[in-house]
Amino acid sequence: MMIAWILAALLAQDPTAPQGWTIRKVAESTFPMFATFDDRGRLYVTESSGGDLYLELQNRVRGCRIRRFEDRDGDGVFETSTVFAEGLAPSMGIAWRDGKIYAADPPDVATYEDLDDDGKADRRRVILTGFGHRDNGSLHGLVFGPDGLLYMTTGEPDGYTLTGRDGKKLSGVSGALLRCRPDGSDVEVIARGFENLVEVVFLPGGDILGTCNWYQKPEGGIRDAIVHLVDGGLYPYCPDQGTAYPVTGEVLPPLALFPAVALSGFVRSDADGSLYSAQHNTRQVVRHVLTRKGSTYAAESVDFVRSENPDFHPSDVLEDRDGSLLVLDTGAWYVQHCPTGRIRKSPAPGGIWRVRPTAKPAGKRAEPARIPVGLSPELLQKWLPDPAASRALARLAKPEAAAALVDVLNTGDAPQRLAAAEALATCGGADSLPAIWAALAADPDPFLEHALIHAALRVSKGQLPSDLPAHPRVRKAALLIRDQTAPGLRPEELLPHLGSADADLRRAALRILQKHRDWAPLALKVVDERLQKAELGDDDRALLRTLILAFQSDAGLQRKVGAALDRAFVLEAVAETTLPRFPETWKPGLAAALTHQDPDVRFRAVRAVATLGLVDHDALLTELSANPAEAAATRFEALRSLIGRRPVLSSAALDFLLNRVAAGADALPRLAAAEILRRATLDDAVLARVLKAIRGDSLIAPSLFLPGLARAGAPALDEAAQSIRQGWRPSVAELGPLLERLPGDVRALLRNAAEEQSAKLAQFEPLLKGGDAARGREVFYGKKVACGTCHRVGSEGGRVGPDLTKVGAIRAGRDLLESILVPSSTFAQGYEPYLALSKDGAVYSGLIARQSPDAVTLRDAAGAEVQLRRDRLEQLKRAEKSIMPEGLERALSPDEFRDLLAFLQGLK
After folding, report:
1. Which end of the chain lies in a sparser environment, N or C, as judged by fewer CB atoms within 10 Å?
2. Alpha carbons 548 and 542: distance in angstroms, whole number
3. Is the distance from CB of 34 to CB of 316 less than 8 angstroms?
4. CA separation for the pair 136, 154 (Å, rounded)
5. pTM attached to this predicted model
6. Residue 877: predicted pLDDT
7. How far is CA 575 from CA 565, 566, 570, 603, 643, in A?
8. Band of the pLDDT at 727, cuts 50, 70, 90?
9. CATH code of the domain in which 36 resides
10. Number of domains in the chain
């Protein structure tokens, strides 16, 4: 059966193209990643070794290569290939220029030259070095722009610490778009703030668009984006750290948003002007048609090439000279952080496909991307108001062009004004400011507003006139400029704007206040005013929460917060504090909150105590945990707080937890009870009772109790053996010495687990078809498996596990099946489990909910959080075992499981 399943996977459907196009495989390539053409039409492809991308980058393993392909008879098929260069680090970018291959070879950008034309590179030269090499956010997407400069992208946390050939130094932690001259000199950052910016394309007037993964934290299943990249732009995901750059206000919005599709290669077709993106996770290439939207664009996205083969993963797309497109399928080697199943004998190797229109396109080819290079400022001004001319003038930085650019700013359309504003940042002077203020007062869109503030900041050097227009956009610009230039902004200048009726101006003022930790008196004044309000709206509560955390170390604010701990939202903020010591002024208020008449205040107070690990309230917590009239959630939090210090449970507490852990109870109480029992000291008889209660449970796995089983006697071991016979499959490594204490039939089951997993996948694969999604939704939110307790779909469900709103679009059916049957086989990025060991010997597990330089907060399967100070941590490491329980399929009938799979596959 397993052999049949593997053969079926290998014979899965080839990718398909839309009507009017054909697709065929034109080259065999093992794990191809990115590609480029040279001026003779030869194709150069970076190929992965197929190993662990992260470990190879971190350890500088050089097992990758560049392969050159040739189509000698012009039939579109590459008949020959040779290894052009070997010994590269994982290479996620490649470009051609003037007889040289430019390749990403972290930590370097290096050129490779074939000096004797034998098809192999003879010379390697580093033109730029200092790129981080920790994960898939390392150096990406090398491409030459129409201005003749080399552009490249990076991600976070890899970052860069660069020294160009001219000695210029740049550093940054957040991902960025950078460019330099072909020799590595004049390196500069264009835009920053990315988790993983991959590749960029250029539009006719010089606009730059890029593919960006983790544009935002997943919300409604949406995460990735196509972005418009502008000089000085800040994008939302990562803090701006490193070389200082101007901040112009809000982060810039995307052109198009997607689920976790893992956007990769990107190309603009000269044949039709459309954009095409390779989307690794969705097994497709998508076409994007742009329309103007003010100074930026909107993108309509439609499927172009797609495959139902779960091992098809496009990583790059590029255009050949005849207008056909090449699609690189990198295969199934990359399983770190991406939804590709691991239960297979060997990864699919991938290949190269050509997509060709069946008929020659009618009409003219699309206008090429261009920025005129080498022309004088006088000639370029004759091109105005063309945006390409403005951007060429920006490169020259000639003040004599400022008047012409101001004229474009006054009279041009939105795209022309955007380019003129960008150029004024380098060409303009103080006499350009009135035109900039006027343009800001005309309520520009976010991209033009950014460019105008960026230009004003550059040309004014902080010297602003006293008679600025009163328009909120101008006031906002003035605040931002004054705050970033000498002599700086004074607190009293900011105060009136914190209560502005204009939301944009108010947000900008708040952001400025947050970063000035020495302005605590001003923050205290704002907090005091808000707390005195009889009723607080959502905006007020959000503002207070932000200021409390931003100024948490100020003694005056601490006193004010201590007097307000009878409010639930203040307690929520306190639970996130990262102070090394809990303030004395908060202790009376917290104690009072623990006995407050409002049950929600009591719950939030107990949760704050449990999350922060406070030890001064054990008597009150014990009373709450033992009170049968108290809400179960509050009792759980009280016990969670106490269990680390008092691991021996009272008989009443034990009965409370055992009653809640029993099958049939609601999911969250069961999970919460199990987490507390896991940390308790249980005698052999009680441990046996717990294991019997959860035997065959789809929600709580016996793996939770392995530390106790290591010391257990016969009754508990017998229960563990029964659980294994009924489907529990801990790994041999997890069990350690315990394995030899189990019966022989049980040991045999565990040693054959890998074969059993493959057989199980084959057994359940037919259930991927024929289900009813409506009935599957009932299963998802029902009590049997309680998926909705941890996972969110749309606005419903929990937030412990990954958001599944669009999971059917990003995971193949087979990979979805594997993630349910073998949840520890692969983890969604951002949801990796961790184990933490504190210096006092306590062990914690869960997902990282938040972290700062001082503390990390873990969230367990029940959604409960615990904050761990880094200076009190002995170890924090990735765990091998998912917090998602195994055995879900045992709780469902085949028809219910089929319906659940139909529901998940339909979430697109």
Report:
1. N
2. 10
3. yes
4. 9
5. 0.88
6. 86
7. 11, 14, 9, 12, 19
8. confident
9. 2.40.10.500
10. 4
